[in-house]
């Protein structure tokens, strides 16, 4: 298999991100809504955001999750960055309510939402969210697929809307290489276990396979346990939020990236219901089948960025 082909595609998507976003971030910034949990896909996005921002000549003045956030004192020139992912809309409404809170708390600052999948089942939420966003004169929202982009352009008409690939593509391949393991011959069916799962018969495509979700989702590590302990302590006001932020950034993040790379790199062929199973496979030069989720997120992303004819990259719409 030609790994240069994969690397070329990753570099193309990474360049697209820098072209679209680097000039917008022209001052020191804060980064909020970070994923202090065990979903490796969200942490890969965070790692990509870190790597992207490290190339810019500005400082991160503050970072926090939805749960550790306390409004910092910053001036109007400070840029507010909101973590990307798949939680803009009403699928994961708690995260969206936090996004709206941030938009309302910084009426004069430039706000940039890193690339998001956007989905609404309830049009009342769409109308309400667009109305809140319309009151902010300096809000940029990045969509990571064409369907999300069109939805935002049609409804968030007062805001700057951009089409940008997922931030995980900013992770250097050389950085991930340090965690790679020798591959086995069994295929991997990376099967999510939450409400986005669509039933899928893997036996139609392969007979020698292992069925797993991300290891961090099935078996909580000591790092995840400690992070939960610290977060609960912070909510009870017995542990300062600073220590939770520090532990998440300096211990948990790297541990989960390592876990994801070690896990995926052991398998020759990846069948995945998780979008970042496919994205990480691409970063590692692994052949993959991406299987759709329950509202089309995976299909929309694939058709936006990965539609070239390729014998090693496939999409299954079931």
Number of helical runs? 11
Shape: globular
Mean pLDDT: 90
**H-E order:** HEHEEEHEHEHEHEEHHHEHEHE
Number of domains: 2
Share of residues in helices: 40-55%
Low-confidence stretches: none
Query: Under CATH, the topology of the largest domain is which?
Result: Rossmann fold
GO molecular function: transferase activity
Keywords: Transferase
Protein name: Polysaccharide pyruvyl transferase YvfF
Domain Polysaccharide pyruvyl transferase: 39-294
Keywords:
318 residues; alpha/beta; Rossmann fold; 2 domains; five-stranded parallel β-sheet; transferase activity; Polysaccharide pyruvyl transferase YvfF
Give an overview of the whole structure:
This protein has 318 residues and is an alpha/beta fold. 43% of the residues lie in helices and 19% in strands. It has helices at 3-21, 40-54, 93-105, 123-134, 146-155, 173-177, 215-218, 222-235, 241-265, 275-284, 297-305; strands at residues 29-34, 60-65, 79-82, 85-89, 111-119, 139-143, 160-163, 187-190, 209-212, 269-272, 287-291, 313-316. The strands form two sheets. Strands 1, 2, 3, 4, 5, 6 and 7 form a seven-stranded parallel beta sheet that branches. Helix 2 packs across helix 9 (241-265) and helix 9 crosses helix 10. The protein starts with a helix and ends with a strand.
Q: How are the elements arranged and paired?
A:
Layout: H1 3-21, E1 29-34, H2 40-54, E2 60-65, E3 79-82, E4 85-89, H3 93-105, E5 111-119, H4 123-134, E6 139-143, H5 146-155, E7 160-163, H6 173-177, E8 187-190, E9 209-212, H7 215-218, H8 222-235, H9 241-265, E10 269-272, H10 275-284, E11 287-291, H11 297-305, E12 313-316
Parallel strand pairs: 1-2, 1-3, 3-5, 4-5, 5-6, 6-7, 8-9, 8-10, 10-11, 11-12
Keywords: Transferase
GO molecular function, one term: transferase activity
Domain Polysaccharide pyruvyl transferase: 39-294
